[in-house]
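Revision sheet: structure tokens.
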Amino acid sequence: MHSILEILLVNTKTGTAKKSGQPYSISEAHCVLRDESGKAGAVGVLTVPKALEEVAKPGLYTASFTLEAPTYGENAGKIVAALSGLVPIPASALKRASAATAPA
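Predicted:
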């Protein structure tokens, strides 16, 4: 599954796990999901996997998602989409697409 994703801001939460006492850090990207013409479809927050923390910077991306069923946390037992890849795309690509689909 692929989507056009605009990352606006990435925040990292850090702390100590209550059960294990181990330190943790979780990066979250504040994003806009866009359609092919660049129109905003939804706004929300995505958890950034450790493997993508260096890539996930403000900008425009083709985002890949996988489905998973976590065994812990608030989504335990639910099938949810998880960010699995980010490929940067130039902002001008959306501008060209929206210009091509705009009514004359």
